[in-house]
């Protein structure tokens, strides 16, 4: 009886060991299968992202071709506005259909970089010391509009921020701050962590967050509302290659967004910016009604007969554009944002696009 009991116990232990081994093998098999599937999916996504990157890059080149064609119109239009083909989403969609992509869907958007406020032109270049007063006033009006917009920036101090931007950009770092509330390196050295005032042009708009008074909330926006970053560019100004080596800071009134148009308006006339914005876009039977070739066309908008925008702040032409090319599939989405400059060859007279920046997400 004792031997039978021992044999029975051994068989029970063997059965438990066998079940344990089987359980471990099942767990290992399932984990290997999961990892294999994960690796396969990861490879599929990586392959898909590579393909989508190529499609998005092709989209940028398609957009550049559209911009070059705009210059080759006969006769040339002599202006750049939201009324042209490059700014028309339907036209861009029609162009895309001529380039069928089997592995993804391409979406294009072209916007005028001169429709944005050019941060680096608050200071006059070359030299980089003297303030550019019209640009300073433009910034002051823009920030006051933000303050009064009900977006939660009631405590904003526009004058202090404008002075601090000027101090950040100018090449002179001493005790002579701009205005009463500007900021040079002495201010930034006392922060945690400390850093130096740049005393030169910004290479990236996000550098604005380093400047006294410009918070991440102001820059990026709060509660789903746009921040000031949507209306800024640092790709123009002293860093721009061409001509006199810098841009004047003029904004294309034919392409500027509503908040920028409002900032261009003389103090007290900001409410009329909406009339100018609507006048510019007014159509009948899918055709635009109003001529935008003269920079003072805004006076024809309802109620704007007496409005006078500083002529040194506006233009009607541009050769700087932002291209957003998005390629999407069921597995992934890739977006390329490129800023390009149209340039004309001196000898041949042919137009090309020079890439100033290229970002992939």
Commentary on this structure:
The chain is α/β, with parallel strands linked by helices and 361 residues long. It folds into two domains: 1-116 and 256-361, no CATH class; 118-250, EpsJ-like (Ribonucleotide Reductase Protein R1, domain 1). Helices cover 36% and strands 14% of the residues. The chain has a four-stranded antiparallel β-sheet with strand order 1-8-9-10. A hairpin with a 2-residue loop joins strand 5 and strand 6 (287-288). It is globular. The N and C termini lie far apart (76 Å). Mean pLDDT is 86; it is low at 241-246.
Q: How would you summarize this macromolecular structure in one to three sentences?
A:
With 361 residues, this protein is an alpha/beta fold. It has helices spanning 2-71, 89-96, 133-147, 158-169, 185-189, 216-220, 258-264, 273-281; strands spanning 105-112, 117-118, 232-233, 251-252, 283-284, 287-288, 314-315, 320-328, 333-344, 351-360.
Distance between the termini: 76 Å
* Uncertain spans: 241-246
Q: Any idea what the radius of gyration is?
A: 29 Å
Order of helices and strands: HHEEHHHHEEHHEEEEEE
* Global shape: globular
In round numbers, the mean pLDDT is 86
- The tally of beta strands, per DSSP, is 10
What fraction of residues sit in β-strands? 5-15%
Based on secondary structure, the structural category is alpha/beta
Number of helical stretches of at least 4 residues: 8
Strand order of the largest sheet: 1-8-9-10
Reported for the largest beta sheet, the result is: 4 strands, antiparallel
């Amino acid at each position: 009886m004792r031997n039978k009991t021992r044999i029975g116990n051994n068989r029970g232990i063997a059965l438990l060991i066998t079940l344990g081994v089987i359980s471990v093998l099942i767990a290992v098999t399932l984990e290997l299968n999961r990892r294999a599937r994960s690796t396969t999916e990861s490879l599929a996504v990586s392959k898909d992202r590579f393909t989508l990157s190529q499609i998005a890059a092709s989209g940028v080149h398609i957009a550049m071709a559209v911009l070059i064609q705009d210059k080759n119109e006969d006769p040339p239009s002599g202006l750049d506005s939201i009324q042209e083909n490059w700014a028309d989403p339907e036209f861009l969609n029609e162009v895309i259909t001529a380039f069928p992509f089997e592995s993804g869907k391409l979406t294009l958007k072209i916007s005028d970089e001169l429709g944005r406020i050019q941060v680096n032109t608050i200071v006059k270049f070359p030299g980089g010391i003297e303030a550019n007063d019209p640009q300073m006033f433009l910034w002051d009006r823009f920030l006051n509009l933000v303050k009064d917009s009900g977006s939660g920036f009631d405590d904003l101090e526009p004058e202090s921020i404008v002075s601090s931007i000027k101090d950040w950009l100018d090449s002179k770092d001493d005790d002579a701050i701009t205005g009463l509330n500007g900021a040079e390196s002495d201010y930034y050295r006392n922060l945690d962590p400390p850093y130096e005032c740049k005393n030169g042009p910004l290479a990236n708009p996000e550098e604005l967050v380093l400047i006294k008074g410009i918070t991440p909330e102001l820059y990026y926006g709060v509660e789903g509302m746009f921040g000031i970053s949507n209306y800024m560019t640092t790709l123009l100004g002293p860093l721009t290659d061409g001509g006199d080596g810098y841009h004047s800071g003029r904004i294309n009134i034919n392409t500027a967004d509503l908040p920028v148009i409002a900032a261009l308006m003389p103090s007290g006339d900001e409410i009329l910016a909406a009339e100018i914005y609507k006048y510019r876009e007014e159509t009948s039977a899918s055709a635009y009604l109003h001529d935008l070739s003269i920079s003072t066309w805004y006076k024809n908008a309802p109620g704007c007969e007496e409005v006078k925008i500083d002529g040194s702040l506006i233009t009607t032409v541009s050769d700087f554009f932002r291209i957003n090319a998005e390629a999407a599939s069921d597995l992934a989405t890739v977006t390329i944002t490129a800023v390009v400059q149209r340039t004309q060859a001196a000898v041949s007279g042919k137009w090309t696009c020079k890439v100033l920046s290229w970002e992939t997400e």
